[in-house]
UniProtKB/TrEMBL annotation:
It comes from the Eukaryota. Homodimer. Residues 4-96 form the Stress-response A/B barrel domain. Signal peptide: none annotated. It comes from Hibiscus sabdariffa. InterPro entries: Dabb, Dimeric_a/b-barrel, HS1/DABB1-like. It holds the Pfam family Dabb. This is Stress-response A/B barrel domain-containing protein.
Length: 105
């Protein structure tokens, strides 16, 4: 699956209930048809010096950049973003067209 990707890597604040944020994220992507795929994970292997405090990664796939652009202005995304930003200590965002080098079997 190629398309356009939205990758967010975060470190949550210490007092945040991460499960609540994850449920909110899953609700968000279920309500926005432009999101074709949503994946997330929590780091369990990387040495601290490599992950620099980041603990979770979120990856959304869109068919094209225009779908991502529409997602960023969707009312549900705007509403959830305020909650999400308040919960994170630091983050990195990458938005990019995907190049598939090896498709899943």
């Amino acid at each position: 699956m190629g398309g356009f990707k939205h990758l967010v890597v975060v470190k949550f604040k210490e007092d945040v209930e991460v499960e609540v944020i994850l449920k909110g994220m899953e609700k968000l992507v279920s309500e926005v048809d432009a999101v074709k795929c949503f994946e997330w994970g929590q780091d369990i292997e990387s040495p601290e010096m490599l992950r620099q405090g980041f603990t979770h990664a979120f990856l959304m796939t869109f068919e094209k950049k225009e779908d991502y652009t529409a997602f960023t202005t969707h009312p549900t995304h705007i509403e959830f973003s305020a909650t999400f930003v308040a919960a994170i200590d630091k983050f990195v965002v990458l938005d990019f067209p995907s190049v598939v080098a090896k498709s899943p079997a």
